[in-house]
Write a structure and sequence with these properties.
single chain, Peroxisomal Thiolase, Chain A, domain 1, 11 helices, 14 strands, 33% helix, globular
Length: 360
């Protein structure tokens, strides 16, 4: 068996906000230290750090985070990039290391400094000037690599979701997060003076109606804002600490890259089957809200009870620090699941889906 024995995160700050001067390891290190302190572990007890990062310039940021957190120099650090899914995938990799016997204590999660992301330039093989670009390709086939805003709007149209429907989902996410603000502070490690998610607000229908249109009915109100943040858990081979949570099942799979918002559907169902659970047996579900349309599609298609989904608000009310977002879902489960089973699920560009089932 593998256990999550500690879980913490920073607040989430919109790009160029409170964390604008911080690098990936600046965000990660205090969270790692807090996780260790929560269960009384010494840095010497850590065998590995697995860190998800999507926007950095390489260089193994997991190693930088491990050193900045004061871990032994023997901890090499492993960096992964599965875009939005990477934070959950880091936890699944940690589980695999522990189950194989290769490690006993692994720190896993993600850290993203959207504000300090490097400028990307594509070189010209014929010697012309380098051309700036904002994101890499997520499929080698252009017709299967849609702009993510466009893909969300196509999904909304396919499901018959109106802008009003999506705005209502987003407003409810903000309302839940506002109501839970004091409770959420228990999982947040204050960094740069910020101890709560800075983007959360009272999103009224009138305010949502004034939001900037991205494409069609997809707006700045019903799409998650780009953000900075970090989140980590400790995966262990034994139930240490006062409130361990068991990892029951987990899976990552690829799906149609042209429909990234639907990628989690198959893997959510498969993870539940592996756990021997029906969706109705869950007590809590954390479903990524990169877009309201994507979250609504996953909840409906999986047969989840909306009352247990993102009970303290989701990414629409926080923001989306890409490499850390999956790990934030696991942190939310750790602090929100009192008893029974919980599910975390996330979609990623390129048609990737990851799901994690836990129990307490």
């Amino acid at each position: 068996m593998t256990w999550i024995i500690a879980a913490r995160r920073t607040a989430v700050a919109p790009v160029n906000g409170a964390f604008r001067r911080l690098l990936v390891h600046d965000l990660a290190a205090p969270v790692i230290r807090a996780c260790l302190a929560d269960v009384g572990l010494d840095p010497q007890d850590v065998d590995e750090v697995i860190l998800s990062n999507a926007l950095g310039g390489g260089g193994n940021p997991a190693r930088l985070a491990a050193l900045a957190a004061g871990l032994p120099v023997a901890v090499a650090g492993l960096s992964v990039d599965r875009q939005c899914a990477g934070g959950l995938d880091a936890i699944l990799l940690a589980r695999a290391l522990v189950e194989s016997g290769a490690a006993r204590i692994v720190v896993a999660g993600g850290s993203e400094s959207y504000s300090r992301r490097p400028i990307r330039l594509a070189t010209d093989p014929d010697g012309g000037p380098a051309v700036p670009y904002d994101r890499p390709a997520f499929s080698p086939f252009p017709d299967q690599d849609p702009d993510l805003h466009d893909a969300a709007w196509q999904l909304a149209q396919r499901l018959g979701l109106t802008r009003k429907d999506m705005d209502a989902w987003a407003a409810f996410s903000h309302a839940k997060a506002l109501a839970a603000r004091s409770r959420l502070m228990a999982e947040i490690v204050p960094v740069a003076g910020l101890s709560f998610d800075a983007f959360t607000r009272a999103l009224s229908p009138a305010l949502a109606a004034r939001a900037r249109v991205l494409v069609g009915g997809i707006t700045a109100a019903n799409a998650a804002v780009a953000a900075d943040g970090a989140a980590f858990v400790i995966v262990a081979d034994r139930p240490l600490g006062p409130n361990p949570m068991r990892i029951v099942a987990g899976q990552t799979q690829g799906a149609d890259p042209a429909e990234p918002g639907l990628a989690p559907l198959k893997v959510m169902a498969q993870a539940l089957r592996m756990a021997g659970l029906a969706p109705t047996a869950l007590q809590m579900a954390e479903v990524m809200e990169a877009y309201a349309a994507q979250a609504m599609a996953c909840v409906a298609a999986c047969g989840l009870d909306p009352a247990i989904v993102n009970p303290d608000g989701g990414a629409l009310a926080r923001g989306h620090p890409i490499g850390a977002s999956g790990a934030i879902l696991a942190v939310r489960l750790f602090h929100g699941l009192v008893a029974g089973h919980g599910l975390a699920a996330i979609a990623a560009a390129g048609g990737l889906g990851t799901a994690l089932v836990v129990a307490r």
